[in-house]
Write a structure and sequence with these properties.
This protein is α/β, with parallel strands linked by helices. It folds into two domains: 221 residues, Rossmann fold (3-Layer(aba) Sandwich), CATH 3.40.50; 46 residues, no CATH class. It has a six-stranded mixed beta sheet with strand order 6-7-8-3-9-10, with helices on both faces. A four-stranded antiparallel beta sheet has the order 2-1-4-5. It has a three-stranded antiparallel beta sheet with strand order 11-12-13. Helix 3 packs across helix 5, helix 3 packs parallel to helix 6 and helix 6 packs parallel to helix 7. The two termini are 37 Å apart. Bound molecules: adenosine-5'-diphosphate.
Length: 275
C-alpha cells in the first residue's frame, strides 16, 4: 500500500538499519492538514530514527518521504522540528526572544534584529505560545515547560505545515505536560499545522491526538487511536499476545509471557504506578 492521499506527509515503506540491524522495516503512514498524531513506542523502538528519516537526516535502505507532495530538500521548507534533549545552559547569553528570532532569520541575525517587522512577528509568536512574560529571560534559566514553549515558537515561526517533536513531554511535571499538549492541540486547530509528536507514554495524549503511529518490532500500526490500540492489532505488531487495558481513563499495554507474568511495554513501572 502506498500512503499518498495528498496529505501533508506521506511516509511510504521506510526501512532503516544500523550496521545490519533493522530498526525500521517498511513503515508507512500519512498525515492530513491539522492532524495531531502521536508517534508512540517504547525506548529504542525507533521513534527518533523515524523522525530523522522524515527530516532527511537519516539515510533510508528503502522507501520514500513526501512532505507537501515534495520529496527531498524541497519538502523540508514545510517542516518545523523540535529535537530531543537540547542542552540549554544557563550561561548561554541567549534570551527566549533571541532563539525565536533565529528561527525566523537564521544567519541574518544582525540586520534582522533591527527590523520592526521581525520584532512584531517574534512578539506575536511568543504571545501565541504563552511565552511573552519570560521573553527576555535567558533561555537556560527557564523551566522545562517554558523552554518547550520557546522551542515550539522557534520551530513554528516560519509557519511550517508540519511540526515534528521528539519526546517534548519527557522530564516535564504533570501540569506542564497537559499545558504543552493543550497548546499543541490549539496550534493544530488554529493554524492547521500537522503535528507528529513522539512519546513513550501515550496517556497524556489520549484525549488530544487524532491518530497514532505505534512502533514496535521495527513496524508500525497507524490510524485512529481507538482502532490501533487494541489487543489484536498490537499482538500482530509485536508478534506475541498483548493485552490492552483501559483503567481510569488510562491505557496500559501489557504482554503476557509464558509464565503469565505481565510487563509494561509502553510505560516504565513508575508510570504504571501513577495509573
Ligand atoms: P527511540 O527514539 O524510540 O528511543 P531510536 O530511534 O533512538 O529509538 O533507536 C532505535 C534503535 O536504533 C535502538 O536500538 C538504538 O540503540 C539504535 N540506534 C539509534 N541510533 C543509532 C546509531 N547512530 N547507530 C547505531 N544504532 C543506533
Amino acid at each position: 500500500m502506498n500512503v499518498d492521499d495528498g496529505g501533508v506527509l506521506s511516509a511510504n515503506h521506510l526501512s532503516v538499519s544500523y550496521a545490519g540491524k533493522t530498526v525500521l522495516d517498511g513503515v508507512s503512514f500519512g498525515l492530513k492538514p491539522g492532524e495531531f498524531c502521536g508517534l508512540i513506542g517504547s525506548n529504542g523502538s525507533g521513534k527518533t530514527t523515524l523522525l530523522r528519516a522524515l527530516l532527511g537526516f537519516q539515510s533510508l535502505d528503502a522507501g520514500e518521504v513526501r512532505i507537501d507532495g515534495k520529496m527531498g530538500k524541497a519538502g523540508l521548507h514545510s517542516v518545523g522540528y523540535v529535537p530531543q534533549k537540547i542542552m540549554l545552559d544557563a550561561e548561554i547569553p541567549l534570551r527566549a526572544r533571541d532563539l525565536v528570532t533565529l528561527g525566523l532569520t537564521g544567519k541574518q541575525l544582525g540586520f534582522a534584529l533591527n527590523s520592526r517587522a521581525v520584532r512584531q512577528q517574534v512578539d506575536a509568536m511568543l504571545r501565541e505560545v504563552g511565552a511573552e512574560s519570560f521573553a527576555d529571560e535567558r533561555i537556560g534559566n527557564l523551566s522545562g515547560g517554558q523552554q518547550q514553549r520557546v522551542l515550539i515558537a522557534h520551530a513554528l515561526i516560519r509557519r511550517p505545515r508540519l511540526l515534528l517533536l521528539d519526546e517534548p513531554l519527557a522530564n516535564l511535571d504533570i501540569r506542564s505536560v497537559s499545558e504543552i499538549v493543550a497548546l499543541l492541540r490549539h496550534l493544530c486547530i488554529v493554524h492547521q499545522v500537522s503535528i507528529l509528536l513522539s512519546a513513550h507514554d501515550m496517556n497524556p495524549l489520549l484525549s488530544s491526538m487524532d491518530s497514532i503511529v505505534y512502533l514496535a518490532n521495527g513496524r508500525a500500526a497507524s490510524g485512529k487511536t481507538d482502532e490501533v490500540v487494541q489487543s489484536d492489532v498490537l499482538s500482530r505488531l509485536y508478534g506475541y499476545p498483548i493485552e490492552v487495558l483501559r483503567v481510569m481513563n488510562r491505557v496500559l499495554v501489557i504482554a503476557a509471557n509464558a509464565s503469565s507474568d505481565v510487563c509494561a511495554l509502553t510505560s516504565p513501572p513508575e508510570n504504571l504506578m501513577k495509573a
